[in-house]
Amino acid sequence: MTWSIQERKELTERYVKGEAAPEEQALYEERLLSDDSLLELYMETLGRQEGLPDLPDPASFADQVMHHDKIKPYPRRAAAYAPDRPKRWYEKAIVHYAIAASVTLLFLFTGAFDRLQTVSPEHEAPLSQSPSYSDQLVEKTSGWIDSLMSK
């Protein structure tokens, strides 16, 4: 069913003013979704209106909109941390301490602390002759373990 330009204008006017029959409104809304020229006419007609049409019962209109099948509110997002939820394994302090200790041992055994050693003017010993911090720590630790094992 095609409408003439005059019929489109008259139906658009009635629709905007709220005077169209329910069957006409349904048909007009269906056409409005698919016909760009009708949408342009509708927008022009709305632009010429002085104000919005009065709603007979604003409260019932709001209820209809809120309870419409196609309108769904955004779901509430869960809080990032809920006090009643158990902590994940990576949120526990012991995991952080274990990682820090592992990194420290890695630096210790790879000799990363050797670069921290500086030669003071009174010692004047070259770096190659003095034991590194890593070697000193390993020696002290192994000595401590040996003393425990001998008891």
Q: Unreliable runs, pLDDT <50, ≥5 residues?
A: none
Q: In one word, what is the shape?
A: rod-shaped
Number of helices: 6
Rounded average pLDDT: 79
Gyration radius, rounded: 40 Å
Q: Give the biggest sheet.
A: none
Q: Give me the strand/helix succession.
A: HHHHHH
Number of separate strands = 0
Global structural class: mainly alpha
Strand content: under 5%
Helix content: 55-70%
Q: Termini, distance in Å? A: 104 Å
What are the defining features of this structure?
151 residues
Explain what you see.
This protein is mainly alpha-helical. The protein is built from 6 helices and no strands. α1 packs across α3 and α2 (22-34) crosses α3. The longest helix has 18 residues, at 93-110.
